[in-house]
Amino acid sequence: MIRVVKGDRDTCLSFIEELKTRVGETEKSVEETVSDILKKVKSGGDEAVKAYSRKFDGWTPETLELSRTEMKELSKDCDPSFLESLRRAAANIREFHARQKQQSRIDPMGNGVITGQRVRGLHRVGVYVPGGTAGYPSSVLMNVIPAQVAEVGEIIMVTPPGRTGKPDPNILAAALVAGVDRVFLMGGAQAVAALAYGTESVPKVDKIVGPGNIFVATAKKQLYGVVDIDMIAGPSEILIVADDSANPEYLAADLMSQAEHDRLASAILITNSEQLAAETVKALYRQVETLSRKEIIEASLDRFGAVIVCESMEQAVEFANDLAPEHLEVCCQDPFEYLGRLDNAGSVFLGHYSPEPLGDYFAGANHVLPTGGTARFFSPLSVDDFIKKSSFIYYPKEELLKAADDIIRLAETEELTAHANSIRVRKEL
Ligand SMILES: NC(=O)c1ccc[n+]([C@@H]2O[C@H](COP(=O)([O-])OP(=O)(O)OC[C@H]3O[C@@H](n4cnc5c(N)ncnc54)[C@H](O)[C@@H]3O)[C@@H](O)[C@H]2O)c1
Ligand SMILES: N[C@H](CO)Cc1c[nH]c[nH+]1
Ligand SMILES: [Zn+2]
């Protein structure tokens, strides 16, 4: 079910290239489907979204929006202990993100000159909460809390009804706990298109954030420019870098924790220990039998899973930076030794007792993370995604006059005489 590759640096690198090509090929075949959906929603509005909901989710909505009363009614039987856990997780997420908040700045320069920067929340954002093959109440918190910390004007949440063809009560409960402004029951590329273009019932948003499957991620990519987006947060990925201090049972469990998200999810172990690699594979075969999403896990590991036995931990670090995974576990004797050299990862999990699901649900750091190698340049979802800034400048007359000759010279060098004139009229009149 999972390939094991052992070799020198070149052998490992060429295998890694092959893995990356596989991901790229899958994405290409989705591009056209998504582009078609976007066009149809742009011209067909609500009716097109409803037609796709019927087709992909087996859901025949009368209206796309859920009222607050409907949300309360649909979620009234949620397990109270689940809600308690959700509230504790929300508190950790809020605390983590509150520390990210940037303040507006006024910088008096002491001579009457004042410069500064005004920071404020975006006017209206759309948050995508996945729900096709599993419900993600945790993603409601991860999307909405940083938006609230940033003081976004209006938060519009979209989520598909999922396998049952009914709204997921736990997602709705999470939306009520988080305090989302409006909820629309729709998913996939059609939901992203509705948020980007606006429809009869869905308001057009300034930015779309949140994770989703390949259709959601591709739609966000294609709509960038019509609307702002946070990043490409597609099918989940885990890369584990481990030395012989690691426990193979833990490694197998952690690899499958991400493989279970999606047939397109990827799970890779890189180690310098042949014995650890062999024991992890054995543990994978044993543990998978006990898991409910066995079929998805096996499909994901078949195509996008790998165990790479390299020559040294130095190589493991090099390969990790090359792969730029969404999640990177460092299951080593001294994980902090590696932290400063691991430059390309959405989120890094250090040591034997910081498994990836700790970050998915509870530690407070965001679980909406870049995938597909885009951790080379994208960052985790944060409060920064929900703000915009403007700078401001105030000069009193005497300070402008002191600066006038410099400005005029710079403007004339660029042959922009109207710029120079704007300064000169103040100097001369
Ligand atoms: N990177 C991250 O931060 C992060 C976080 C959480 C989840 N995830 C990922 O989110 C994804 C959740 O996926 P999901 O499928 O359960 O839910 P989803 O909500 O992302 O996608 C479901 C939607 O996909 C669309 N769809 C399904 N099959 C289609 C087809 N053949 N053609 C066109 N559209 C189609 C449907 O419209 C459906 O509503 C997983 O890939 C998971 O790994 C990523
Ligand atoms: N691992 C996912 C991000 O790739 C986030 C998540 C939500 N629930 C469980 N896991
Ligand atoms: Zn997860």
Question: What's a quick, concise take on this entry?
Answer:
With 429 residues, this protein is an alpha/beta fold. It has helices at residues 9-57, 68-74, 80-98, 137-149, 169-178, 188-197, 214-223, 248-259, 274-288, 294-304, 313-323, 336-339, 356-361, 397-413, 417-428; strands at 3-6, 65-66, 105-108, 114-121, 124-128, 154-159, 182-185, 207-209, 228-229, 237-242, 266-271, 305-309, 327-331, 347-350, 387-394. NAD(+) binds at residues 128, 190, 213.
What topology does this entry show?
Blueprint: E1 3-6, H1 9-57, E2 65-66, H2 68-74, H3 80-98, E3 105-108, E4 114-121, E5 124-128, H4 137-149, E6 154-159, H5 169-178, E7 182-185, H6 188-197, E8 207-209, H7 214-223, E9 228-229, E10 237-242, H8 248-259, E11 266-271, H9 274-288, H10 294-304, E12 305-309, H11 313-323, E13 327-331, H12 336-339, E14 347-350, H13 356-361, E15 387-394, H14 397-413, H15 417-428
This protein binds nicotinamide-adenine-dinucleotide, L-histidinol and zinc ion (ZN).
The site of zinc ion has 4 residues, from loops.
Please tell me about this protein's structure:
Zn(2+) binds at residues 258, 261, 360, 419. It catalyses: L-histidinol + 2 NAD(+) + H2O = L-histidine + 2 NADH + 3 H(+). It is an enzyme of class 1 (oxidoreductase). Catalyzes the sequential NAD-dependent oxidations of L-histidinol to L-histidinaldehyde and then to L-histidine. Substrate binds at residues 236, 258, 261, 327, 360, 414, 419. This protein is α/β, with parallel strands linked by helices and 429 residues long. It has three domains: 32-102 and 121-231, Nitrogenase molybdenum iron protein domain (Rossmann fold); 235-376, 3-Layer(aba) Sandwich (Rossmann fold); 395-428, no CATH class. Helices cover 48% and strands 17% of the residues. It is built from 15 helices and 15 strands. The protein has helices at 9-57, 68-74, 80-98, 137-149, 169-178, 188-197, 214-223, 248-259, 274-288, 294-304, 313-323, 336-339, 356-361, 397-413, 417-428, and strands at 3-6, 65-66, 105-108, 114-121, 124-128, 154-159, 182-185, 207-209, 228-229, 237-242, 266-271, 305-309, 327-331, 347-350, 387-394. Strands 1-12-11-10-13-14 form a six-stranded parallel sheet, sandwiched between helices. The chain has a six-stranded mixed sheet with strand order 2-7-6-5-8-9, with helices on both faces. Helix 1 crosses helix 6, helix 1 (9-57) packs across helix 7 (214-223) and helix 2 (68-74) crosses helix 5 (169-178). The longest helix has 49 residues, at 9-57. It is globular, with a radius of gyration of 25 Å.
